[in-house]
Amino acid sequence: MKILVSADMEGATGVTWPADVLPGTPQWERCRSLFTSDVNAAALGFYDGGADEVLVNEAHWTMRNLLLEQLDDRVQMITGRHKSLSMVEGIQHGDVDAVAFIGYHTGAGTEGVLAHTFLANSITGVWVNGVRASEGLLNAHVAAEYGVPVVLVTGDDLTCVDAKGYAPDAQTVAVKDYVSRYAAVCRTPTRTAADIRAAAKEAAGLAGRYTPVEGGPFTVELEFDAEHLAAAATVVPGVAPSGERRVAYTSATMYEGIRTFKAVTTIVSSAVEEQYG
Fold first, then answer.
1. Which of 55, 99, 133, 196 holds its CA 20 to 30 A away from the CA of 3?
2. What are phi and psi for residue 122, nearest 5 degrees?
């Protein structure tokens, strides 16, 4: 049994505001250990449940945040950027039996601690075939195309609610409760590590590849906080205006859809100016 762990940071234990997740800040340095603790707890739980391999894919910002030296020696980790499938890199090789979303968060334009979708502020909403989409939903569509079930999701309490929409059978663990975008009621890392480990052990029983789901075509629509960002996004072939500050594109598969999404966000982020956005 091989488990892929997609590890994001905004939904990690104790994380509540931008400085906690921005590489280079003192708070980020402190929170790296909390983030690593969540991921390691998931790995240990999967091993407890019978996993033979756990592959962790770093999925936050620079994708160089986890402390490798604090992970169980059996774990392997993909670290660094510019990966074919970004947050779920490693799922495409046909040997992954389940995926876990650790440290995830809610989507842009919704309530949740550090809620966003790929870009911290510029994107104010994302929809897939008319359904508002978090990063979890987008990545779950990719996983389904490879026949890989999402078996565990951790983050704040609203992230757990969101997960029930795209992975209703998955185990969920709330490591904190939403108060505002930048505030939460947080559990201690000792408690969250125990909760995540126990949930991962149960989640291992859900592992098992299934017949890949061809759910396309997928129409993805993005809304931005400024009109010039929507215009910048149309540089990507197939992306067209769909409304005020909105663009949309249609992909036959979510493999293509997520790659186009990444191209759009890369172009848009380069069009953001300091202060004015």
1. 133
2. -65, -35
